[in-house]
Amino acid sequence: MRDALAERLLAEVMAWTPEDIARERPDLQAMAAYKYDEYQQFGPGMRFIESLASWLGQFEFPNQRGKAYEFVKGKLLFCSAAEMNHLVAMAYPDKIRPLLIRGAALDAGGNPRAVARIASSVEFRVRRRRCLFLGLSDGARTDVFRRYNSSELSQEQIRQTYEMPEERVESLLTSLKDDLCAILGKDPPESMCSFRTLVLLDDFSASGLSYLRRGAGGSVDGKIGTLHRQLAESYSPISRLLDSDQRDLIVVLYMATKQAYDHLTQVSDEIWKAIGVSCSIIAVDLLPPKIRVRIGSGDPMEPIIEKHYDKGIEDDHTRVGGTDLKYGFAGCGLPLVLSHNTPNNSIALLWAKSESMRPLFPRVSRHKVTSMKEPRNPFRLRASEHIESDATFIRLFAPGALDLLPSGSELWERLHIIRSAPGGGKSSLMRLFTPAALQTLHAYRARDECKELYQRIRALGKLCTSVSVRV
């Protein structure tokens, strides 16, 4: 029943005929079931089709709704959890392992094309064990990475974060020495008892700026910038883990844009060589530039993006990108949604929520900013504020809730105090008597789902037969 109601709401928003509904229903149901319903930031009771109807309803003109709907059908990219895990599974065997094989071949003076021979050599096994894999965020999915590569990599090589406590350093070095002793069949030389290759893992980058950027005065900022400063300090925990003479860094992103890849490659070349570190940037899935929605490209979504934008969604963190957020952070213009969250590099229409913007895929930000521009209405902090359309609110409102109110003239001749637990329905009841809700109810009075509520409200003396509303 929920699916049928959601489809009916969408059909009303789009002004579809029965033939239109029959044509679009299979596509909508397939999109929702196969991917979009798994989006983790939908609120309770909200799924893709309901969110789509609400999102399309904010656009004023039918042609805008049509263009936005075609954008969702034809250009939106959604990376499911299964697809992201597949990229995680590919990262080591397809991208990292070939680099290690090539490095082992060069060290031994052998032919890097003799893969089978190198992979079975002691030199490669030592090189592989001297790798340390660190997550840059929760998106690194180090648990998934560990499970997929348990036959080749030690549990002790894979850590969830690059923030390394002092007590962990000795434990990792002791474990490394024990494993090298088993590989070599003898005690390893002291120069070998530290990690040579540091592999940084994360799920996605669109601009590369949050990972690595030049700050004021030439400083190196971002997640990798923090690591750069730590490696430059010989006494830091992460520096003590690594070989002082031979240090390799591999940054692995399961998904990245060409813009991010080029930025990270350029800045890395500038900063790592200065401290004697060889750096490689790897994108398991490199998104091509053609997917972007670009300013001035003539994309049908351009005028909609320009018109439906609230500058209030910007803050100090987003300004680091050097642009507004119409086309996302750093102007990336991505039509991309990840199953666990929407990147802020995607066009703001997809994820931003404000007084004038409704998101299709609501985003949870890492940076919580409290706005001081105006206090929020406390009645909108409970469940009813999730129903942003007055038409939807009227259709969902149960007429039986009005039984709580006194009958006859007593309702309007004295003060009444309504108490309930949070979420008990006070906000919904008050919203019903707002001018916008009453006008919508009057306009929908002939519809079967609204007739009873309309008659109950008329009996209370709040609506007349004309379109005016008396409050």
Structural write-up:
This protein has 471 residues and is α/β, with parallel strands linked by helices. The protein folds into 3 domains: 2-75 and 293-351, no CATH class; 81-290, no CATH class; 378-459, no CATH class. The protein has helices at residues 2-14, 18-34, 48-57, 62-74, 81-108, 115-119, 122-129, 142-148, 166-184, 223-231, 237-241, 258-271, 302-307, 348-351, 390-396, 410-413, 426-432, 435-443, 448-459; strands at residues 77-79, 131-135, 158-159, 197-205, 213-214, 220-221, 247-257, 277-287, 336-338. Helix 5 (81-108) packs across helix 7.
Shape: elongated
Number of helices: 19
Largest sheet: 5 strands, parallel
Cα(first) to Cα(last) distance is 35 Å
Structural class: alpha/beta
By DSSP, the count of extended strands is 9
- Stretches where pLDDT is under 50 for at least 5 consecutive residues are 369-383, 464-471
Domains counted in the coordinates: how many?
3
* Helical content class: 40-55%
Roughly what fraction of the amino acids lie in strands?
5-15%
Could you report the average pLDDT, rounded to the nearest whole number?
86
Overall radius of gyration: 29 Å
Order of H and E elements: HHHHEHHHEHEHEEEHHEHEHEHHHHHH
Lateral strand order in the biggest sheet: 3-2-4-7-8
Fold topology:
Layout: H1 2-14, H2 18-34, H3 48-57, H4 62-74, E1 77-79, H5 81-108, H6 115-119, H7 122-129, E2 131-135, H8 142-148, E3 158-159, H9 166-184, E4 197-205, E5 213-214, E6 220-221, H10 223-231, H11 237-241, E7 247-257, H12 258-271, E8 277-287, H13 302-307, E9 336-338, H14 348-351, H15 390-396, H16 410-413, H17 426-432, H18 435-443, H19 448-459
Parallel strand pairs: 1-9, 2-3, 2-4, 4-7, 7-8
Antiparallel strand pairs: 5-6
Helix pairs in contact: 1-3, 5-7, 7-9, 15-18
